[in-house]
Design a protein that fits this description.
240 residues; alpha/beta; Rossmann fold; six-stranded mixed β-sheet; 9 helices; 35% helix; globular
Amino acid sequence: MPDKLILKVKDMETHIGQYHILQGVNLEVPEGHVTVLIGRNGAGKTTTLRSIIGLTPPSKGSVEFNGQMIHGLPPYTIALKGMALVPEDQGIFSTLTVEENFKIAMQKEDKVTLERKDWILDVFPDLKPKLKQKAGGLSGGQKQMLSIGRSLVNDNKLLLIDEPSKGLAPIMVETLANAIKQIKSHTTVVLVEQNFWLASAVGERYYIIDDGQTVHEGVMEDLIKDKVLQQRYLGIGTKE
Protein backbone atom coordinates (compact mmCIF):
# COMPACT_ATOMS: atom_id res chain seq x y z
CA MET A 1 0.00 0.00 0.00
CA PRO A 2 1.51 3.38 -1.00
CA ASP A 3 2.37 5.93 1.69
CA LYS A 4 -0.25 8.53 2.51
CA LEU A 5 0.58 11.95 1.06
CA ILE A 6 0.62 14.58 3.80
CA LEU A 7 1.40 17.48 1.45
CA LYS A 8 0.50 18.09 -2.19
CA VAL A 9 1.61 21.24 -3.98
CA LYS A 10 0.29 21.72 -7.50
CA ASP A 11 1.42 24.35 -10.04
CA MET A 12 2.29 26.82 -7.25
CA GLU A 13 3.32 30.30 -8.36
CA THR A 14 4.41 33.13 -6.06
CA HIS A 15 5.10 36.80 -6.70
CA ILE A 16 7.12 38.97 -4.34
CA GLY A 17 6.41 42.53 -5.40
CA GLN A 18 7.01 42.71 -9.13
CA TYR A 19 9.13 39.56 -9.15
CA HIS A 20 7.69 36.23 -10.30
CA ILE A 21 9.74 33.99 -7.98
CA LEU A 22 7.93 30.65 -8.24
CA GLN A 23 6.68 29.71 -11.69
CA GLY A 24 5.32 26.20 -11.24
CA VAL A 25 6.34 24.18 -8.19
CA ASN A 26 4.89 20.68 -7.79
CA LEU A 27 5.54 18.46 -4.77
CA GLU A 28 4.09 15.29 -3.27
CA VAL A 29 5.33 14.55 0.23
CA PRO A 30 4.69 11.09 1.75
CA GLU A 31 3.94 10.90 5.45
CA GLY A 32 6.70 9.71 7.77
CA HIS A 33 9.59 10.40 5.39
CA VAL A 34 12.21 13.07 4.71
CA THR A 35 11.73 14.82 1.36
CA VAL A 36 14.56 17.12 0.29
CA LEU A 37 14.30 20.23 -1.89
CA ILE A 38 17.60 20.96 -3.58
CA GLY A 39 18.90 23.33 -6.22
CA ARG A 40 21.29 26.21 -6.72
CA ASN A 41 21.19 29.42 -4.67
CA GLY A 42 18.30 31.64 -5.72
CA ALA A 43 16.35 28.79 -7.31
CA GLY A 44 13.27 29.43 -5.14
CA LYS A 45 13.61 26.78 -2.44
CA THR A 46 13.13 29.09 0.57
CA THR A 47 10.21 30.83 -1.13
CA THR A 48 8.65 27.40 -1.68
CA LEU A 49 8.67 26.70 2.07
CA ARG A 50 7.42 30.19 2.91
CA SER A 51 4.63 29.88 0.34
CA ILE A 52 3.52 26.48 1.68
CA ILE A 53 3.07 27.88 5.20
CA GLY A 54 1.55 31.14 3.94
CA LEU A 55 4.28 33.68 4.76
CA THR A 56 4.59 34.59 1.08
CA PRO A 57 1.13 33.54 -0.16
CA PRO A 58 0.97 31.79 -3.54
CA SER A 59 -0.59 33.81 -6.35
CA LYS A 60 -1.61 30.67 -8.23
CA GLY A 61 -1.90 26.90 -7.77
CA SER A 62 -2.94 24.83 -4.77
CA VAL A 63 -1.48 23.55 -1.49
CA GLU A 64 -3.16 20.59 0.22
CA PHE A 65 -2.04 19.63 3.73
CA ASN A 66 -3.34 16.53 5.48
CA GLY A 67 -6.35 16.39 3.16
CA GLN A 68 -7.27 20.10 3.47
CA MET A 69 -6.69 22.93 1.02
CA ILE A 70 -4.68 25.58 2.87
CA HIS A 71 -3.50 28.06 0.22
CA GLY A 72 -4.78 31.52 1.07
CA LEU A 73 -5.00 30.82 4.81
CA PRO A 74 -2.95 32.99 7.21
CA PRO A 75 0.24 31.40 8.57
CA TYR A 76 -1.05 31.11 12.15
CA THR A 77 -4.06 29.10 10.95
CA ILE A 78 -1.81 26.77 8.96
CA ALA A 79 0.49 26.39 12.00
CA LEU A 80 -2.46 25.41 14.21
CA LYS A 81 -3.30 22.64 11.71
CA GLY A 82 0.06 21.03 12.54
CA MET A 83 2.75 22.55 10.34
CA ALA A 84 5.92 24.30 11.51
CA LEU A 85 8.73 26.18 9.78
CA VAL A 86 12.34 26.25 10.99
CA PRO A 87 13.61 29.36 9.17
CA GLU A 88 17.08 29.78 7.74
CA ASP A 89 17.87 32.49 10.34
CA GLN A 90 16.67 30.12 13.15
CA GLY A 91 14.26 32.72 14.61
CA ILE A 92 15.06 32.03 18.26
CA PHE A 93 14.67 34.64 21.01
CA SER A 94 18.26 35.46 21.95
CA THR A 95 17.43 37.35 25.15
CA LEU A 96 15.30 34.50 26.54
CA THR A 97 16.67 31.34 28.09
CA VAL A 98 16.53 28.01 26.27
CA GLU A 99 13.72 26.96 28.65
CA GLU A 100 11.78 30.15 27.92
CA ASN A 101 12.19 29.61 24.17
CA PHE A 102 10.53 26.21 24.57
CA LYS A 103 7.75 27.60 26.77
CA ILE A 104 6.87 30.46 24.44
CA ALA A 105 6.52 27.98 21.56
CA MET A 106 4.14 25.67 23.44
CA GLN A 107 0.50 25.85 22.38
CA LYS A 108 -0.34 24.21 25.72
CA GLU A 109 1.79 23.16 28.65
CA ASP A 110 0.25 19.77 29.36
CA LYS A 111 1.74 16.38 30.24
CA VAL A 112 2.03 15.24 26.61
CA THR A 113 3.80 18.46 25.56
CA LEU A 114 6.26 18.22 28.47
CA GLU A 115 6.97 14.58 27.58
CA ARG A 116 7.60 15.69 24.01
CA LYS A 117 10.06 18.30 25.29
CA ASP A 118 11.89 15.58 27.25
CA TRP A 119 12.15 13.54 24.04
CA ILE A 120 13.55 16.60 22.20
CA LEU A 121 16.23 16.96 24.89
CA ASP A 122 17.12 13.30 24.35
CA VAL A 123 17.49 13.99 20.61
CA PHE A 124 19.55 17.15 21.35
CA PRO A 125 21.37 16.33 24.61
CA ASP A 126 23.64 19.40 24.24
CA LEU A 127 20.64 21.55 25.20
CA LYS A 128 20.00 19.82 28.55
CA PRO A 129 22.69 21.68 30.54
CA LYS A 130 21.82 24.95 28.75
CA LEU A 131 18.16 25.26 29.77
CA LYS A 132 18.77 28.24 32.09
CA GLN A 133 21.22 29.93 29.70
CA LYS A 134 20.27 32.80 27.37
CA ALA A 135 19.81 31.46 23.86
CA GLY A 136 22.02 34.21 22.44
CA GLY A 137 25.02 32.64 24.19
CA LEU A 138 24.65 29.25 22.51
CA SER A 139 26.98 28.03 19.78
CA GLY A 140 25.73 28.06 16.19
CA GLY A 141 24.99 24.34 16.31
CA GLN A 142 23.14 24.63 19.63
CA LYS A 143 21.03 27.50 18.27
CA GLN A 144 20.05 25.28 15.33
CA MET A 145 19.15 22.47 17.74
CA LEU A 146 16.96 24.87 19.73
CA SER A 147 15.29 26.19 16.59
CA ILE A 148 14.40 22.67 15.42
CA GLY A 149 13.53 21.47 18.92
CA ARG A 150 11.19 24.38 19.53
CA SER A 151 9.24 23.53 16.36
CA LEU A 152 8.79 19.95 17.61
CA VAL A 153 7.38 20.84 21.02
CA ASN A 154 3.82 20.90 19.63
CA ASP A 155 2.11 17.98 17.90
CA ASN A 156 3.18 19.02 14.41
CA LYS A 157 2.53 16.65 11.54
CA LEU A 158 4.91 18.38 9.13
CA LEU A 159 8.19 20.16 9.73
CA LEU A 160 9.66 22.48 7.07
CA ILE A 161 13.39 23.00 7.73
CA ASP A 162 15.34 25.63 5.77
CA GLU A 163 19.13 25.21 5.36
CA PRO A 164 19.89 23.79 8.85
CA SER A 165 23.57 23.06 8.10
CA LYS A 166 24.41 26.63 7.05
CA GLY A 167 27.55 27.80 8.84
CA LEU A 168 27.93 24.64 10.92
CA ALA A 169 31.13 22.65 11.43
CA PRO A 170 31.20 19.18 9.77
CA ILE A 171 30.91 17.36 13.12
CA MET A 172 27.76 19.36 13.91
CA VAL A 173 26.32 18.54 10.48
CA GLU A 174 26.74 14.84 11.33
CA THR A 175 24.94 15.42 14.65
CA LEU A 176 22.16 17.16 12.76
CA ALA A 177 21.84 14.24 10.32
CA ASN A 178 21.43 11.78 13.19
CA ALA A 179 18.82 14.04 14.82
CA ILE A 180 16.76 14.36 11.62
CA LYS A 181 16.74 10.57 11.27
CA GLN A 182 15.24 10.35 14.77
CA ILE A 183 12.77 13.16 14.12
CA LYS A 184 11.24 11.46 11.08
CA SER A 185 9.88 8.72 13.36
CA HIS A 186 7.70 11.42 14.96
CA THR A 187 6.93 13.82 12.12
CA THR A 188 7.27 14.22 8.36
CA VAL A 189 10.11 16.49 7.23
CA VAL A 190 10.57 18.67 4.16
CA LEU A 191 14.20 19.80 4.12
CA VAL A 192 15.80 22.55 2.04
CA GLU A 193 19.54 21.87 2.03
CA GLN A 194 22.58 23.00 0.03
CA ASN A 195 24.90 20.49 1.70
CA PHE A 196 24.57 17.47 -0.58
CA TRP A 197 26.11 15.13 2.00
CA LEU A 198 23.40 15.98 4.55
CA ALA A 199 20.64 15.92 1.92
CA SER A 200 21.69 12.48 0.72
CA ALA A 201 22.27 11.16 4.25
CA VAL A 202 18.73 11.86 5.47
CA GLY A 203 16.58 12.28 2.35
CA GLU A 204 14.51 9.47 0.88
CA ARG A 205 12.94 11.43 -1.97
CA TYR A 206 14.15 14.61 -3.64
CA TYR A 207 12.82 17.45 -5.74
CA ILE A 208 15.11 19.75 -7.70
CA ILE A 209 13.94 23.35 -7.93
CA ASP A 210 15.46 25.44 -10.71
CA ASP A 211 14.45 28.96 -11.69
CA GLY A 212 11.27 28.74 -9.62
CA GLN A 213 10.07 25.43 -11.05
CA THR A 214 10.18 21.75 -10.17
CA VAL A 215 12.44 20.27 -12.84
CA HIS A 216 13.26 16.82 -11.50
CA GLU A 217 12.16 14.40 -8.78
CA GLY A 218 12.90 10.90 -7.68
CA VAL A 219 14.47 8.58 -5.14
CA MET A 220 17.57 9.95 -3.41
CA GLU A 221 19.53 6.73 -4.06
CA ASP A 222 19.22 7.37 -7.80
CA LEU A 223 20.37 10.99 -7.53
CA ILE A 224 23.45 9.93 -5.54
CA LYS A 225 24.50 7.81 -8.54
CA ASP A 226 23.54 10.37 -11.20
CA LYS A 227 26.63 12.61 -11.50
CA VAL A 228 25.31 14.25 -14.69
CA LEU A 229 22.13 15.44 -12.95
CA GLN A 230 24.14 16.65 -9.96
CA GLN A 231 26.41 18.70 -12.21
CA ARG A 232 23.57 20.10 -14.30
CA TYR A 233 21.32 21.36 -11.50
CA LEU A 234 23.44 21.41 -8.35
CA GLY A 235 26.84 22.39 -9.71
CA ILE A 236 28.52 19.42 -8.02
CA GLY A 237 31.64 18.59 -9.99
CA THR A 238 33.02 15.12 -10.45
CA LYS A 239 36.62 14.40 -9.54
CA GLU A 240 38.86 13.05 -12.27
